[in-house]
Amino acid sequence: MSPRSRKALVATAVIAVALAVVAFEVVATRPVRGAVRAFFELIAIANRDDDQRIEAARPYFSSRYLASHPIQPAEEGGLVGLPRSIHRNFQAWRQGDEVWICPSNRVGSVFRLVEEGGRWRFDGLVGLLQSGNVLIPADEPPDSPSQSRNHAMNRWLAVLSVLSVIGLLPTTSAQQAAPAREIRNGSLSADDLAEFLGVGAWVFEYEGGRPKCLLEIEEEGQKTVSKKEVLAVDEPNHGPEARRGKILLFMRRADVQLRIHSEASRGGAGMALPPDALWWGWKAFSGSTTRLEKPVAPKPGEPVVLLRHEMIETGEGVADPKHPRKVVMTLKLTVESD
Question: Are strands 98-102 and 91-95 parallel, antiparallel or unpaired?
């Protein structure tokens, strides 16, 4: 084997391993991503100002939660028991078969989601997350003397743990044998990379016809785009290679791209926007995304909605709480037979 062939073989193996690691990360984090998506959708529904929001939100609650908590509108807006907004530095993690979410900035209320009936559902408040990752369970009665002693004991244990780590308390031989700190290489998933870059990206596959794509943006309470139909892209080639490929929608602050990657060519269109356009200039917001759930076989010229992405302004920055600003982005597709 020549040196060039050996290098090519090594490079191929390295790429294969890297792709396998990314695929593993995507599969391993799927429950958390599914629960976070359901939580975002629930908050968006709860913040709606209509009479249908309670029934629309009902499927997002677990049967255990519904048995003991009636769904009621809150006086300040939203629904009782749910936060109004989700901070950009929220936390989400697996806890056994459950997913726990802290929607505030690293500390605050922690909520539980469980998988029931093939979907993730809100199951109530877990507790209060304090600095140092100290969690005080919500089901502990605050007026109980024994519970107060337990809380005090937990705080003292946390203090003693910190003192031990910084060396102000003696440690046992077993504690000295165990490493107090550990640093190691980590892996980066596709979702981690998209979050780090502040990118939203969606991909759809097509086969059997030449696609025509249309991206629409509708705004309420503001006008940052000049027209509803902002991007239109079609496959210019004919032949079998043009009838198979992918549709990619990519967006980040001040930039939206719509592309078609067929087996015949790659192309598309983009649009530059002001940095505070759409929802990028809002102080806080929540949103939901509805995607194509299963493959469809449309007739030639029949429109199909691939994606509907809705964002609603939340928090103290809303000028009119009854009519918050809203942006709806819709991606549509039609397929031509020739």
Answer: antiparallel
pTM: 0.48
Tell me which DSSP letter residue 60 carries: G
For the chain, give every domain's residue range.
3-131, 141-166, 190-336
Instruction: Provide the token pair at 337.
Output: 């037979």
Token readout for 171 is 């440690």
φ and ψ of 28, to 5 deg: -65, -35
Pairing of strands 134-137, 119-130: antiparallel
pLDDT one digit per residue (tens) for the chain, 338 residues: 566 666 656 556 555 544 444 444 444 468 898 999 999 999 999 988 888 889 999 999 999 999 999 999 988 788 999 998 888 888 888 888 999 999 988 788 899 999 999 999 999 999 888 777 777 887 644 444 444 444 444 554 444 444 444 444 454 444 444 445 667 776 666 566 666 666 788 889 988 888 999 999 999 999 999 899 999 999 888 888 888 899 999 888 888 999 999 988 888 999 888 888 998 888 888 888 888 878 888 888 899 999 999 999 988 778 888 889 999 999 999 988 76
Q: With left for phi above 0 and alpha for psi between -120 and 50, is residue 133 left, alpha or beta?
A: left
Judge whether 235 and 211 are in contact, CB under 8 Å. yes
Helix (H, G, I), strand (E, B), or coil: what is residue 188?
coil
List, as one string, the DSSP characters of 250-314: EEETTEEEEEEEESS-EEEEEEE--TTTTTTT-S-EEEEEEE--S---PPTT--EEEEEEEEEE-
Please report which helix (H) or strand (E) contains residue 327, including its range: strand 326-336
